[in-house]
Amino acid sequence: MTLDRRDLIKAAAAAGALGTVWPLSVGLSPAQAQDAAQQLGAEYDPAPFTLGVASGDPQAGSVLLWTRLAPEPFAEHQNLPEIVEVEWVVAEDSALSRVVARGTVPASATLGHSVHVPVGGLTPGRHYWYAFKALGTTSRIGRTKTAPLGAVSAVRFASANCQHFTSGYYAAHRGIARENLDFVVHLGDYIYEGGATTGHDREHNAPDPFTVGDYRRRHALYKGDASLREAHAAHPWFLTWDDHEVVNDYSGTGGGAPFLKRRAAAYQAWYEHMPHRDGLTGDSALPDPVIHRRRTWGDLLELTVLDLRSHRSAQNLAGGTILGADQKTWLKQGVSQAPDAWHVWANSIMLSQLRGRPGGSYMFTDQWDGFLAERKEVLGHVHSSGLEDLVVITGDWHSAFVDDIRPDFDNTQSPVIGTEFTAHSISSSAYSADWNRTNGPLMGAGNPHLQYFEGNRYGYDVYEVTPQRFTTHMRVIADRRDPVSPVTTLTSFHVDRGRAGAYEDPSTKNSPAQYRRD
Question: 83-91 and 99-108: which strand pairing?
Answer without folding.
Answer: antiparallel
